[in-house]
Amino acid sequence: MNFGATFWGPMISFALFVWFTMKFVWPPIQQALADRQKQIADGLAAGERGKEELEKAQAEVEAMLRDAREQASQIINQANKRQAEMIEEARAEARTEADRILASAREEIDQEIQRAREDLRKQVSTIAVQASSQILKREVDAKAHKDLIDDLATQI
Prior knowledge:
Elements: H1 3-136, H2 146-155
């Protein structure tokens, strides 16, 4: 057995195998590893960007909710103010209407008092004519003494 052929033959074969592997096999494997590493790095970066965007979106949502709550509070306050204004307007209108009705009632009462006075004057004049006719035992001319009776009724 020859030590040189058994030693150098496998060594040359191994060297050719290493050279072939380094020249043709290893670069595509390294390229595939680099591509995979780049994909993983891009995926992690996209995940971080997505996380940041999610945090930004959550902050925007919180801001929008806060704004919506403030707007709702303002709308409620405006509605309450408007309600108070409407109640006050209704009260003012009711007071005005009550004053108008009261004035109308007073006017009507005054008219009724005037009518009652006129009726009373007529009755007094009739009673006066009857009383004077009974006193004098004769009929007093109502037309002739009307002015006198009207003055008497006015004084009463």
